[in-house]
Amino acid sequence: MSSNYSIQHGDIKKTKLLLIGKTGDGKSSLGNFILKDNKFETSDAAKSVTQETRGCYGEGDRSDIFVIDTPGFDDSNGGINKDRQHMSEMVNYIKEQEGLQAIVIVLNITNTKLSDSIKTMIKMICKIFPRSNFWEHVCIVWTKCSCDTPEKKLVRQIESKKEKFLPAFIKLAKETTGEEIVKIPMFFVDSCPCKGMDNSRSEEEIEMLLTWASSLPSLNVERIVKNEKVIIEEKEYTKVVEVKNGFVKLKTEYMRREKRIGYDGSVTYSEWELIKIKYKIKPIPKH
To answer: Which part of the chain is the AIG1-type G domain (predicted)?
Structure first.
């Protein structure tokens, strides 16, 4: 980062947003819309264009806004192992930041329910950040709310999403951190309006999002869990290799493996590795 860049953004109050969500739900487009600039590469394909966690400041009246774009979860060309890799990289990136106000869960307005993959994603995020007051920093942004949607239809869509999804998020909050939340901020935007269309409603939604986020204290990134939990397991196996002249020769093999507990609670094991071998000669007990 250049010194001029640091000077430009060093003395102003920053508002930092982390965008998370499934591939194809419009995180990068939303980031561009928030910053009023094409900072992030976008695509309409099911395969994620964003392959690494990256943050950008806006310019002008958005120069105090820092948006962190992340690779999409549930990518058709990655799977759970890729999600874990992206999660680890995201954590390392966030740890380098000096503050983070808001975690923005990006959902497509066409979603009819809170899918298992989204729940898993949120549970993984919950395991990384400090549990205390976690959900106070979370909001939902519904994307692809077309600006040419008739107002009455849009109102029905908004009420439907709040009615169906709020109970699901209240339940998820209780399961993940034990917090008793009664509401969660929701914003509805069209990040990619057709040229010439009036998209002032979406712009007002973003203003409300930024007002809400800027009022929050920063999450303590120093307490973010940086790595998956690794437990070393050991075992030993002894066998008789020789009996001669009233003595028995014993061979003991010492083994070790890693037990990894992932951000999503999954458990994986490495292969048992031979660490050392010891031989011992003992007299055969006389009866």
So the answer is: 12-241
